Amino acid sequence: MATHGIALLEGEIALAGGDSQAAVEFFSTALEADDASIRMRAALELDGIYEDTEENQGYEQRIQLLEAVLADDFQEQKPAILERLAQAYSDAAEITGDGAYAEAAIQALDQLVESGYDTLAVWVNKGGLQKSKADY
Fold first, then answer.
1. I need a labelling partner for 5 at 20 to 30 A (CA). Which of 41, 88, 98, 106 fits?
2. Rounded-to-integer distance, Cα 55 and Cα 57, Å
3. What is the maximum alpha-carbon separation in the chain?
4. Percentage of residues in the chain having pLDDT higher than 90
């Protein structure tokens, strides 16, 4: 566990120093931790790095990462993961024009609502996605 915690810390330091490539390596190592809180923090940091890629071209990496994390047992963080996953799907739909990504984003937002995370932002995002699909 100490090794993974150190990798998480080194990833934070690398990211703060502007070395996102090294940060990705450290955070990827931290994802292998037994401690769920270390894995969660590493996943959220990696998601942020992938999201910040030029023109958000890291959407495939984001989706793969967040789907894997969602399958893990992070119940207390599920709303945050679903929200980020919905955004990654939405970005992918916008970049690729693939309606399947928009539908996946809508499903993630529906899961957010079902889990009790019922906010105006969720409904606005869902409405925008449905409008883009002409699916009212």
1. 88
2. 5
3. 51
4. 49
Which residues, 6+ apart, have CB-to-CB distance to 50 below 8 Å? Answer: 58, 59, 61, 62, 65
Q: 3-state secondary structure string, the chain?
A: CHHHHHHHHHHHHHHHCCCHHHHHHHHHHHCCCCCHHHHHHHHHHHHHHHHCCHHHCCHHHHHHHHHHHHHCCCHHHHHHHHHHHHHHHHHHHHHHCCHHHHHHHHHHHHHHHHCCCCCHHHHHHHHHHHHHCCCC
112: how many CB neighbours lie within 10 A of its CB?
24
pTM: 0.82
